[in-house]
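Quick illustration for those who missed Monday's session on complexes.
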Amino acid sequence: MAAAPRDISEIRQAWREANLAPLWESTSAHRPSPPPETAQLWSWEKIRPLIAAAADVASPAAIERRVLQLVPPHPREEDQQTSRTLCANIQILLPGETARPHRHSMNALRFVLEGSGAVTVVDGKPCPMEEGDLILTPAWTWHEHVHQGAAPIVWLDSLDVPLHRYLGTGAFEPGPVAGMPETVADAAFAVANVVPDTAYATTAYSPVFRYPYASTAAAVAAAPPARDGSRRVRYVNPLTGGSAMELMDCFLVQLDPGATTLPFRTTANSVCCVVEGTGESQIGGDTIRWKKRDIFTLPQGNRIVHASTGGTARLFQVSDRDIYARLGLLREEYGNIAA
Ligand SMILES: [Fe+2]
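Prediction with fe (ii) ion bound:
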């Protein structure tokens, strides 16, 4: 056995060689948490022409998906992401274009911003895409896009890519489609409070892949005020009542004309997309003024207040809230919260 090292430099060297490190000398241990990240806004007015430019220079036939990522100016990691656990991207398809089938371990959703006439086929089920519709393409479902409308269609893509990257679970399979699973027709879920009693449906994600905007908007308009004073509905898996997908939790939020919400703070992260109306949101020390189709982030830990400034406003929100809840890490505060 080697002789025990005697002075501190010898001891440090011996620790390094044995893959040990003194915690008390770590620069990151026992430090206070960093301040919340600042919110980021992507104004539709500013990005729409830049989305059109993508259609000029790239074809889905060559690049699989014509997607622009929404990347804050100071991403945490080398790989780009919109929020701690979520990517948000913009995809555009021109009339006549298709995006061929593939599948992956990442959950994804599409929220239609502009245009109509496209169809996303999810495990063989055609899901028409109209403005404000939410389409789910859950983990390992085959999905492709076909656009037969008369004008370009643009939608928000959101995926749980950063979480998979962290957990080491990202995987991708290109088409052609093989091993298509059985699905249940959306019509079997079309009557409220009745669901099919079937062994085919998974409980890991909603067997309903399309949530039409007209129905969701009617539901949120009738919803009672939530704790912050907004009206909120959650997109759920009708078989479980839980989040529509395991790692992504979606909401439609309505602010009545002139409404201002109570201050709110949460450990969860969200990306918001303005579906209707105009307003402003105080997020930490910043105020974001928004209008239709603008997209902005709500990073965890910030004090948040939303206000409508032009009639009824509606925000689509995709979040990681359910992950925090299931891990016992969701902490939410309302009301008297210091900025
Ligand atoms: Fe995909």
